[in-house]
TrEMBL record:
Residues given in the record as substrate binding sites: S11, K43, L75, R89
Record HAMAP family: PPAT_bact (MF_00151)
Protein name as annotated: Phosphopantetheine adenylyltransferase
Residues given in the record as ATP binding sites: S11, F12, H19, G90, L91, R92, E100, Y125, A126, Y127, L128, S129, S130, S131
Domain Cytidyltransferase-like: from-to ranges: 7-135
Annotated pathway: Cofactor biosynthesis; coenzyme A biosynthesis; CoA from (R)-pantothenate: step 4/5
Keyword Calcium: no
Organism for this UniProt entry: Anthropogastromicrobium aceti
Gene3D superfamilies cross-referenced by the UniProt entry: HUPs
Family: Belongs to the bacterial CoaD family.
Family annotation (SUPFAM superfamilies): Nucleotidylyl transferase
Amino acid sequence: MGKTIAIYPGSFDPVTRGHMDIIERASKTVDHLIVGVLVNSAKSPLFTVEERVALLKQVTAQYPNVEIRSFEGLLVDFARASGAHILIRGLRAVTDFEYELQMSQTNRKVAPEVDTIFFTTSLEYAYLSSSIVKEVAQYGGDISAFVAEPVEKAIKQKFAQRNNNK
């Protein structure tokens, strides 16, 4: 049997301690974990795709089997092109589950060889989302409990730049 390759997709804008928890746990479960940073033109992200990839590389450097790549288009196409047969998704609450179950079933219909594994978020991060982090940071709140130090610095720089441009 070949190497187990999985993809943990997301926008990671910014990458939170909740994301890091899933990355750490998933990296122990599979041989090779690709963190897929979604290029989503519909959203106006705080960080560019390149910045998100760079931040993720920085905060996942201690995991030798984790690779960071950006992608656009269908996740199952990215999975196929990457040789991955597993998608990793994090669940914070029941509300996440309904959406994620629907996506999982759709992906399975489109690509029967690709399966989804759900990781429930550790309780300490169950409330955490990138949106919450951005909102707290926007108003100068302490986000050190939510994100790794390099991410915190990058977020503060972004908001300082935005405020200087106003």
